[in-house]
Predict the 3D structure of the following.
Amino acid sequence: MKALSLALAAVLLCQSASLAFATPARQTNPQETLVRLTNKEVMEMVRSGLSADVIVAKIKRSRCNFDTFPGVLAEMKRNGVPEAVILAMIEAPYGAPSQTTTPTRTDTPSRSESSETSTTDETNRVPTRQRYVPQSDPRMRSGSRVYIVPMEGNLHGFIAAEIMKKKLPVTIVTEEATADFIIVGSSLKGDNRWYHSAFGTGQDKNEGNIQVVSVANRSVIWAGEAGDRSLWWGTLARGGQRKIAGRLVSKLKSDLF
């Protein structure tokens, strides 16, 4: 009877050992180490109502890939991102948490070991974002990349349409960080008093102005303004924002190309 008990205990012990070896250890998903915190995630945390302290703490403990171009930061500020969060984004190290330390080796690896390490590093290297470098020439030329800042009355949309219509040799981009030149401006809507038409005073109902800014040296290389008053029919014909945009783009094309 005693021998039977010992045999049964041995069987149970073997089964427990086999189950322990059969259960695989949890492995870390390689993709978890590749995820980086971006502007989009910060905006989502702000919209969800998280406090600035919580968001800053998350930034300091995360891998980061923030776009800190001045125009992008200004847009985030307008969308309600606290300055403490913006400062943390600027100070965040690229690619690794701030608390992460890299161990150092005091010994010199052998030639074969060095080759193996290099191969491993190339395999596990986290892909980096290639930032666009604007052209160094402040003059606008064929192939330049242009970003149009939103303006009142959707004037920016009419300007983009006129650039395409008049076939200016530039590329309109949707991200400020990838532009060589930035077009900024404003639109002013005048009053619509009846006596402006009755007595032919010839005043513009709408006016607009734009400036072309070089990203390379942060200088204004061109500026223009225009109204929507018809040159042929006086105040009887007014074209609004479309006419203003057409006149501005025509001046821009004539002066710079």
User: Anything to note?
Assistant: The first strand starts at residue 144 and ends at 148. The beta strands are 144-148, 170-172, 181-189, 206-214, 219-227.
